[in-house]
Design a protein that fits this description.
By secondary structure, this protein is an alpha/beta fold. The chain contains 15 helices and 15 strands. The two termini are 38 Å apart.
Length: 394
Amino acid sequence: MEGSNLLGSLPAGEVDLLVVAGEASGDEHASNLIVGLRQRLPELKVTALGGPKLEEAGAEVIFNLVDHSVVGIFEVLKNLAFFRRLFRETIDWIKKVKPSTILLVDYPGFNLRLASALQQAGISRKGGGDVIVLQYVSPQLWAWKPKRRFKMQKTLDALGVIFPFEIKSYQDVNLPVSFVGHPFADESNQTEENLIRYDSKAPVALLPGSREQPVGRILPVLLASFEALLETHPELKAIIPVPNQRMGDLVRKILQGRDTLRERIKVIEGAANLSASLALMSSGTMSLRCALDGIPGVIVYKAHPLTYLLGKFLVKVPYLGMANLLLPEDPPYPEFIQGAARPEKICREADLILTNPEANRERSLVWANRLRDLLSAPQDKGAVDWLETEGSWE
């Protein structure tokens, strides 16, 4: 790969939309947008740096950026040479192809730098060029680095946010910001593939995340917690849904040598029709999905020790789970972070849920309804409406 172009050959003809989505969640959110947009504009030519979901939605994926997703400052530094090369090649590709519109989806470390480089190079409209640059999903200004909003107003043409409270973060800058609803609250996105249903007789769902580094740290804690839970609930089984074979191989590798657990745990690739009685999960995307689907559970998170120390200094939020941040007065999930992520503590909370399922299910449904009300888009002002309005297509 070193001697070849990462993005391959240039596409034939004009490109209407370039999507850049660097994480599994962004790939999924963007794919929902593209499906909806192409229903309205079926001739639209969409190219992407993304993943399998965008490809399924009809985009030509010129580089699988999702496969190279990393999290944490020190993890990024280890891959810095690769990302610098990819960044240069992406700018060169845009200079040559000049897509009508670029949609940057989350992934702010890469995407906001890209928007700035396009502005400085005179390619984007904010830099005097012709290319519209949009951002879908705001960086978490409310948690850290709020001054990014001043650079964003200089480099972006519009921003679509998925949490209603984020609008306030941009009130003092000249950037069009629209709340377009959260994709998990959009009924048109509710398919068998992306739902997880509650069933008191179903297995425990172990959800360590979708990126390799966090999974390597979080999954062993979830496994130890599940093992401790078996002492009081010996009938339990568990599932670990994974997005692809690569993540499945990593999970199976972590399971090696745990013969007792392997008999009770099923690794499911590309899972659909999932049901769970309880979720032991990381603080990422799936924790919000579980909250919206009324699944009781526990949030667990562990990072690289230096990443955690730096994050603790920089990030000022009372919770990591988004459902907890949205409902801070009555947070849906207990959180066990870093040193507090001990199997005996997690097991104790999980046991309380399993021994009183009806009461916990009732509380979970109350949270789910409140969250859905908060995150639903205003009428006729959803994400597809926003993208069609802000994009440059006839």
